[in-house]
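Handoff note, outgoing to incoming analyst
You'll be picking up this chain. Sequence as last confirmed:
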Amino acid sequence: MGGLRKILIVEDSIELRDIYKLFFTQKGFEVETALDGDAGLEKAKEFQPDLVFIDIMMPKRDGYDVLKQLRHNPEYGCTKAKLVILTNLGDASKVSPEVSHDMDGYVIKAEVDLPDLLDVIKSLEDQGENTNE
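Most recent structure output, in case you need it:
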């Protein structure tokens, strides 16, 4: 894995947040977490992640708003970061075009194992290499 070394996980489930953090940390990533959308925005500002996994259904501020804020507001330092929706809601084809344009990936939690998330990261890194050619 190349350039996406700093991961922020914005997830309100304590159990999932801890599992993801442990897994990615063991794989050599630098990982920070946040329990809701507001905390996620603040953490992004401090941490300046390369990749953000964002849950949709969260207290205070939903994941769609977090995605939009991170993508369009330079104050959070994530306008170039990879932003991936991490949810159990339906499939990506049902996401509005505006939201779809802002995200780099869509992962349904119930359909992936932890190692699959490494494939998602690899795919995002490969996309980045192809756009720089």
